[in-house]
Amino acid sequence: MSKRNTIKVYDGPSLLDGVRIIVLLTGLARKSKNPKTGDMLQTWIMRYDTDPQEAVDNGKDASVCGNCPLRPIHYKAKNMPKPCYVHTWQAPKATWNANKDLEVTDSETVVQLVSGRKVRRGAYGDPTAVPQGVWSMLDNGETSTGYTHQWKQEKRLQGMVMASVHTPEERLEAKALGFRTFRVMDTLELQPGEVLCPASKEAGERTSCEKCGLCNGSKENDKRKDVAIVAH
Fold first, then answer.
1. Of all helices (H) and strands (E), which one includes residue 7?
2. pTM score > 0.90 for this model?
């Protein structure tokens, strides 16, 4: 196993606004401490020129989060009940500070390093900010997970990510576009065709994202249920 815990797998323009962004992959040498996700490799999508906490504060996080309604700048402006759950001053900022100037690892080495490992597409940031080829490089046949709030504008990753939705109406709209959905609920009220996230507290935390794999997008003739979770 590589002694490197972090590599850079992308350094280039955001597909959301053209600004330079980076994708750092962590967990190669040290397991994630997140009990919900389990031992998945984590990808962090961040601007190159601005640390993630500063980007959140001044709105530059649009380069990696697009129109996500949970961006803190929207939360403050619209008095929304719950902002993004990612604490950007913790893992994202530390990862950015220590690794933003790494060289991009060549694709052959990346494929070897991630072999047999599951990847969390976007521990922070929206996967649609990144060229599809990056995610294809990290897709080694294992059941990786991902989510996007850009489902109204961008369909190219629907086979890899879930559409993040917040209402039953949004869910139906996303499904009409071909997505499976991951819905954040204010209260525990499942819709027909949904299952409660098996890794959630409400479901008894009976498994982890690593073992579950439901949140890996929509496949051909996919009959699996959509996933929902109570806001946390």
1. strand 6-13
2. yes
* Residue 1 placed within a domain: no
DSSP string, 144-212: -EEEES-TTT--TTTTT-EEEESSHHHHHHHHHTT--EEEEESSS-PPTTEEE-TTSTTTT--S-HHHH
Spatial CA neighbour of 60 closest among 50, 70, 75: 50
pLDDT confidence of residue 1: 44
Q: Using CA atoms, how far apart are residues 95 and 9, in angstroms rounded to an integer? A: 14
Query: Is there a contact between 228 and 195 (Cβ–Cβ < 8 Å)?
Result: yes
Its domain, for residue 115, covers 6-230
Query: Per residue in 185-219, is it b (16+ CB within 10 Å) or e — as a string?
Result: beeeeeeeebebbbbbeeeeeebbbbebebbbbbe
Residues 226/194, Cβ–Cβ less than 8 Å: yes
Report the number of distinct structural domains present in the chain.
1
Nearest CA to 180 among 206, 138, 229, 147?
147
Kindly list the distances between the CA atom of residue 129 and the CA atoms of 19, 92, 99, 224, in Å, as whole numbers in the listed order: 10, 16, 19, 26
pLDDT at 76: 66
> Where does the pLDDT of residue 192 fall: very low under 50, low under 70, confident under 90, or very high at 90 and above?
very high
The position carrying tokens 């031992």 is 39
Q: Does the residue 173 lie in any domain?
A: yes
The answer to whether residue 18 is domain-embedded is yes
Rounded (to 5) percent helix, strand, coil in the chain: 25, 20, 55
